[in-house]
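To: structure desk
From: M.T.
Subject: fold request, one chain
Message: Could you run this one when you get a chance? Sequence is below, nothing fancy, just the single chain.
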Amino acid sequence: MGGDRLAHLNHLPASAAEDELLTCCSAPSWAERMAAGRPYLSADDAIRQSATIVASMTVADLAEALAGHPRIGQRTEADHGPLRSAAWSAQEQSGVNDADAATTLGLAESNLEYERRFGHIYLVCASGRTGEQLLSLLRSRLRNDAPAEWQVVRSELQKINEIRLRKLLAGSP
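Reply: Done. Structure tokens follow.
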């Protein structure tokens, strides 16, 4: 998978590699450490490195990563990261597009409640999930305390990073 794209990433100057990687995760510390970890032998090698980095990210690093993601159910706009990242967010959240009005309203209200409770957006790996599933997950996560929720955010971020790294290395738009 993506041997040419992997070789391309491996041979870019560090700053250019960081720019490419920031389309997967908007935390500069993650992109810097990913770029510094090159060369990668495979996409799986890069994904393992990402998991190691995400596991050691501070809350401030995680907050920077969250800044690159729109709310679940919100249309992606230019201020939510690079064009590729915005397109990926739209693909990942496509299950919300068919949600009924009650689910859409529930997501909007619950997103705000989550943000008031935790001080940041609700991050979830939305790929393959319906609006109803995402709303149910959101409501269940509102029962977490802040430390537990940061661990869930960390886990969800790594799932998203894995999907996006695979897309980046496959050359997917």
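Reply (cont.): The radius of gyration is 16 Å. Let me know if you need anything else for the meeting.
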